[in-house]
Design goal:
It is a single chain. This protein has 3 helices and 4 strands. The protein is an alpha+beta fold. It has a 4-stranded antiparallel sheet with strand order 2-3-1-4. A hairpin with a 2-residue loop joins strand 2 and strand 3.
Length: 94
């Protein structure tokens, strides 16, 4: 399922390590502190457990948001670059 991960981490070191972890999970960077990719239920839960180590202050937060295909299609992206949220060829209509 399409998964968005957005975060606000105060420590540069932790922020960089978190980005590396997200890349290791196969997610792609869409913003400086935002990633997207397809994660199954199990991998999403594993990721949620692993990211806890990067929270070190009250101001830190990590959002892991799963989107169904219908929800992903309704997202609006305002950008000058071509950065669709979903690849239409990967959408399966049932």
């Amino acid at each position: 399922m399409l998964t968005l991960v957005i975060y606000d981490i105060s420590s540069d070191k932790d922020r960089n390590k978190l980005a590396e972890l997200l890349l290791d999970f196969g997610l792609e960077r869409i913003q400086y502190s935002g990633f997207k990719g397809n994660l199954n239920f199990h991998d999403c839960n594993v990721l949620a457990k692993k990211v806890k180590q990067f929270i070190s202050s009250r101001n830190d937060s990590i959002y892991i948001i799963r989107l169904c295909n219908e929800c992903a299609k309704t997202c609006k992206i305002v950008s000058k670059r071509d950065a669709p949220l979903i690849d239409e060829s990967m959408v399966k209509i049932v």
